[in-house]
Design goal:
It holds the Pfam family DM9. The chain is mainly β and 155 residues long. The chain has no helices and 16 strands. Strands 10, 11, 12, 13, 14, 15 and 16 form a seven-stranded antiparallel β-sheet that branches. Strands 3, 4, 5, 6 and 9 form a five-stranded antiparallel β-sheet that branches. Strands 1-2 form a two-stranded antiparallel ribbon. β7 and β8 form a beta hairpin.
Length: 155
Amino acid sequence: MAQCGHGFQMTLSWIPEGNGRVPRNPIDAGQGVVVIRGRHGQEVIPGKLVPGQVVGHMPYGGKEFPVDEYEVLCETGIKCGKCYDWVPAQNGQVPQNSVVASIASDNSPLYVARTQMEGDTVVGKVHQGHTSAYFPFGGQEVPREQYEVLVWKMN
């Protein structure tokens, strides 16, 4: 959301895509990696799309899962400027105004997280109630106690 006059404008939207395609104004997590979410069974899970790849990747159940149909998080506000920021967090905590990517099967929010692994930017999830964030990397779901969370930047 971005404050516009006396109101607020919804400035982030999930845009359906697939097969490596990216719509205009994607949220760039760094190094061209964009924030996505995709389905695995009944779950919708945040993850990453790496430049030049045709599938996205999501962390789930200890593994990294590919997804060829996904939604890309994009900035869709009009004349509001950058409406988000990445804020450091740790041990499963999330800052105020964190972006919710979806709701897990246990009805807990899943938030968008990022970290660095072996020099690569990786996007994953913070599952409320857990003590770490989880990232898809090297075929595994990798937990990290320190990470950054995507938050609405309230002007």
